[in-house]
Automatic annotation (TrEMBL):
Keywords: Membrane, Transmembrane, Transmembrane helix. The keyword Membrane applies. The chain crosses the membrane at residues 14-38, 50-68, 73-93, 105-124. This is Uncharacterized protein.
Length: 132
């Protein structure tokens, strides 16, 4: 007998993982805006609520856009998320109290996991397109 190799499509799981991570980041930014999640020694003048809530809204929208299953949206989200993290690390590189605050660690850990899930999703989608 010839053994058939069963190939499973990992994209649905990766899509939902990415959505959940984007919503987690949105929730973390919302908690920062509500002063529930700390951000180190940042005075309130340096963390305007509008910016924090705009970030939360963008991650919420981005998480929902993942569900559209468009690779170009996943790539755009990957690049934008990378830019957000790069700006954060550049802005607060000399302020470990902000970098290692609960808000900084939670948002960046979730954003890094989101990056990895989007990369895996893009690769899985590309492989699936080649097989078809």
């Amino acid at each position: 007998m010839i053994a058939l190799e069963q190939q499973t499509d990992s994209r649905p799981r990766l899509i939902w993982l990415s959505v959940v991570l984007a919503l987690l980041v949105a929730e973390a930014y919302t908690l920062i805006g509500l002063n529930i999640l700390g951000v180190g020694d940042l005075p309130s003048a340096e963390r305007p609520a509008a910016v924090v809530y705009a970030a939360a809204g963008c991650y919420l929208l981005g998480g929902l856009l993942i569900l559209l299953r468009r690779r170009w949206l996943w790539v755009a989200g990957l690049l934008i998320n990378t830019l957000v993290m790069w700006i954060f690390f550049r802005a607060y590189a000399a302020r470990p109290a902000v970098l290692f605050s609960s808000g900084g660690l939670i948002t960046k850990a979730a954003q890094i996991m989101l990056e990895l899930s989007l990369i895996a999703l893009i690769i899985a989608d590309r492989r699936s397109a080649r097989r078809a």
